[in-house]
From TrEMBL:
Disordered, as annotated region: 96-115
One Pfam short name: HTH_5
Gene3D superfamilies: Winged helix-like DNA-binding domain superfamily/Winged helix DNA-binding domain (1.10.10.10)
Keywords: DNA-binding, Transcription, Transcription regulation
InterPro entries, per database record: ArsR-like_HTH, HTH_ArsR_DNA-bd_dom, HTH_CRP, HTH_MetalResp_TranReg, WH-like_DNA-bd_sf, WH_DNA-bd_sf
Organismal lineage: Bacteria, Bacillati, Actinomycetota, Actinomycetes, Micromonosporales
PROSITE patterns xrefs: HTH_ARSR_2
Domain of life: Bacteria
Residue span(s) of domain HTH arsR-type: 1-86
Name of this chain's protein: Winged helix-turn-helix transcriptional regulator
Organism: Paractinoplanes ovalisporus
Length: 115
């Protein structure tokens, strides 16, 4: 399973969000998510197999952390879409600026007020 497929599931995204700030044990993730330990472990296994997280054994606990590689790959995959939307949003901004400026009179004469 690739990283995008792994984090497509909402619970796994919540785990990733929790690990974004710091490394966590399974117990900490269980408390954070309000889920059972077996359920959290199942999701962590999927994330580990996709390379999104890694685990290190400390004493008798497994501590999980995010791995940057899959996120770099996702960022590279998203880059063309960001450019496309940046371009489209820039065009929208220019269009709205033109509308807010009002119609241009150019060389056309306006209404006569001296009648």
């Amino acid at each position: 399973m690739d990283a995008l497929a792994a984090i497509a599931e909402p619970t796994r995204r919540r785990i990733v969000d929790g690990l974004r700030l710091r490394e966590c044990t399974v117990s900490e993730l269980v408390d954070m998510l309000g889920m059972s330990q077996p359920a959290v472990s199942k999701h962590l296994r999927v994330l580990r197999e996709a390379g999104v997280v890694s685990a290190q054994t400390r004493a008798q606990q497994r501590v999980y952390r995010l791995e940057p590689g899959p996120f770099r790959e996702l960022d590279a995959w998203l880059a063309p879409y960001r450019r496309m939307w940046t371009h489209h949003l820039g065009e929208l901004e220019r269009h709205l600026d033109r509308k807010a400026a009002g119609p241009r009179l150019g060389n056309k004469a306006g209404p006569r007020l001296d009648n």
